[in-house]
Structures are given as structure tokens and as C-alpha cells.
Structure prediction request, 118 residues.
Amino acid sequence: QVRLVESGGDVVQAGASLRLSCAYSGSSSHIPFIAGMEWYRQALGEQRDWVATITYDGTANYAPSARGRFTISRDTEKSVLSLQMDNLKPEDTAVYYCSARVVDNTYWGQGTQVVVSS
Prediction:
């Protein structure tokens, strides 16, 4: 089992920056075997969309909407996944979720709300 808790969501104006954090914890049979961690987002009335991935070896990948503006990182010593979001746009408004993949299971946090006003 892996527990994830997101934080850092806020109401900001377009062009601002935000840093989301996801603190994770779990058993020794799960944490060392996290294959990858992701950020997803879900706007009101929309499906949940993938934003970014960081694999166990630190390789990062981004959705086209996030590439060049968002940076995913993971501090394994502090057990924190982060998403640095710069030059935010109103279309970035959504609930942001972090997830962790361990073998055949995916664990989710409860989400943190980001609102970007124009």
C-alpha cells in the first residue's frame, strides 16, 4: 500500500507559478518498488488527463500542454513528488492528482485544486 497526499493548490492569476507537492509513504514492500510516479489533472466535467511522469531512474516525460512550462521532480530521501508549474494559464485550472505505480497497482492521492484566473 502507498499513501499519497497532495498539497500546494491555490488560486492564482495567469502567468503566475505554483509548486505542487505530493508526500508519499508506505511499506518497505512497496516504496522501493515504485516504477514511476505521475501527475494527472481533471477539470470540472472533464476526464482525468495525464500531465507528467517521472520513472524510477529519474526520466521525465510531459504531456504537450505541460512541456516547457511544468517540471516534475522526485526527492526520494524526503519521499516527495513535486510539480513546478510556471506561466500558468486559465486552461490549467483543474484538480491535480499524483499517483504511484507499483507492479500491477496504481495508488492515488485525494487531489489538490488549482484555479488560474485570467
